[in-house]
Design a protein that fits this description.
The complex is a heterodimer of chains A (about 150) and B (about 80).
Chain A: H1 3-9, E1 21-25, E2 29-35, H2 55-76, H3 81-85, E3 87-98, E4 107-118, E5 121-129, E6 135-147
Helix pairs in contact in A: 1-2
Chain B: H1 3-17, H2 44-55, H3 61-65, H4 70-80
Helix pairs in contact in B: 1-2, 1-4
Classes of the chains: A alpha+beta (about 150), B mainly alpha (about 80).
């Protein structure tokens, strides 16, 4: 499957989709990008007059690339397309650190490398860097593919 | 390595993931990893990987699926070391 095929299989959609493009993808790592729109819904409240991307959204952004898209790709190496479409990736655990702020309009790059992929559980080390190359969020994240009922 | 040593190491590994305050002394071979130790099923993969590292063994996915109690883990390890 191509990078575009994998991107199309990521189930999250606006207003909760935080992956625009997959730049690099292989069995060991994934690199993707996302530009935070000026009108993302959460900026109205976080914070009024001073919009800053919430840490939980950065974590979600890291997971959509590092666990969901990456997991779909790794699963595609051992499962059929039909099986992948019946499987939903859910978050299982994370240990993260935030070290910078992301503002509306910022384009970030998400990089993740595989720690392990076993029994449809993917654990990855991931980070988000801003357009200046500064790390704003990093850590270990994991998720598992579950059959949809 | 004796069965008692394996049991003790297994209890140590499970302790990292358990969400209960259950004391190590009350854990037996029959203790359920998910129900009694309140370990998230998604952590079973991490536990099996820890078994592989700690005992220098390889556990295939079918064997891993059979681990429900502490005793299942201990017996699986004993069969491979």
């Amino acid at each position: 499957m191509t990078k575009e095929d994998i991107l199309a299989l990521v189930p999250q959609q606006p207003p909760f989709r935080f992956i625009d493009e997959i730049l690099e993808l292989n069995e060991d790592r994934i690199v993707a990008s996302y530009t935070f729109r000026e009108d993302e819904s959460f900026y109205a409240g976080h914070f009024p007059g001073n919009p800053i991307t919430p840490g939980v959204i950065l974590l979600e952004t890291m997971a959509q690339t590092g666990v969901v898209a990456f997991g779909i790709y790794l699963a595609s190496l051992q499962m059929t397309l039909a099986e992948i479409q019946q499987t939903l990736t859910v978050f299982t655990e994370a240990e993260v650190e935030f070290s910078g702020m992301v503002k509306p309009g910022d384009k970030v790059t998400i990089r993740a490398s595989k720690v392990y992929f076993r029994r449809l559980k993917l654990k990855a080390k991931a980070e988000i860097v801003n357009q200046l190359g500064e790390v704003v969020c990093s850590g270990a994240i994991a998720g598992i593919g579950v059959k949809q009922s | 390595m004796s069965k008692e040593d394996v049991f003790s190491k297994v209890v140590d590994i499970l302790g990292k993931y358990s969400k209960t305050e259950i004391s190590a002394d009350s854990i037996t071979m029959e203790t359920s990893i998910l129900d009694d130790l309140k370990i998230n099923s998604a952590r079973l993969v991490d536990i099996v990987l820890d078994f592989e590292d700690a005992f220098d063994i390889e556990v295939d996915d079918d064997d891993a699926d059979s681990v429900a109690t502490v005793g299942d883990g201990v017996n699986l390890i004993m069969a491979k070391i």
